Amino acid sequence: MQPRTFIQRIRSERGITGLETAIVLIAFVVVAAVFSFVVLSTGLFSSERGKETVYAGLAKTRGTMQISGGIIGTSDGTELTDLTLSVTLAAGGDSVSLDPAAANNRTVLSFHDESIVENDLTYVTTVAVGDADSILEPGEMLTISIDLTQNAAIDIRDNETFWLEMKPPTGSYLVIQRTLPASITQTIVNLN
Fold first, then answer.
1. Residue in 111, 113, 137 with CA at minimum distance from that of residue 122
2. 165 bridge partner residues
3. Pairing of strands 161-167, 141-147
4. CB neighbours (10 Å) of residue 83?
5. Pairwise CA distance, residues 30 & 78, whole Å
6. Are the C-beta atoms of residues 170 and 61 closer than 8 Å to each other?
């Protein structure tokens, strides 16, 4: 047998050519690009959803009202007949409509105790500080008067606990809980 020459050895050896290597490399790059696109798209989508959640939470808390001063009750000697309270916006809060005659976007007052739930109390607002409309804006104070005799089922007597809920069209609820004193023989009852 004759020894093989150098040229014959090169022709007989098999291996990966440069073209095959380039194709494999391009396939790896394409797969990596698609994977990175999917990861980035998912990250951008989830961060956008997170931003929407934060903005929705801020919108929910911006309309927050707070009580300014005490809650004054008027008594006939045996039960409460009227409630009066003043409200302002919390710091950074958005305007809240307190127009009881509004058909849409109005604040609803609810009452409940151990025996009754009244979801839409009739109330009257008067401006204590601010312009003459019934929209509670930053820097303003509105007084809310509730005539409890308009609903015969509401009967608040001595030592009784009750809750008022103010539900604005946007923003968080204001929940007020009060307990009457042991005796309400006086006409004006301070419910602080």
1. 111
2. 110, 175
3. unpaired
4. 25
5. 83
6. no
The pTM score is 0.65
Q: Which CATH architecture has domain 65-190?
A: Sandwich (2.60)
Please give the pLDDT value at position 10: 57
Among candidates 84, 88, 83, 92, which has minimal Cα distance to 66?
88
Question: In a 3-state reduction of DSSP, which class is residue 66?
Answer: strand
Return left, alpha or beta for 105; rule: phi > 0 is left, psi -120 to 50 is alpha, else beta.
left
CA max distance for the chain: 130
At 59 the pLDDT is 61
Looking at residue 40, what is its pLDDT? 86
User: Which mean pLDDT values do the consecutive 10-residue runs of the chain (192 residues) have?
Assistant: 58 66 88 89 85 72 76 87 90 80 86 87 89 86 89 82 88 85 84 80
Decide: helix, strand or coil at residue 192: coil
How far is it, in rounded angstroms, from Cα 87 to Cα 107? 12
Q: What is the pLDDT of residue 144?
A: 92
Strands 80-89 and 141-147, by their bridges, are antiparallel
Is residue 173 exposed (0-12), middle (13-18) or buried (19+ Cβ within 10 Å)?
Answer: middle
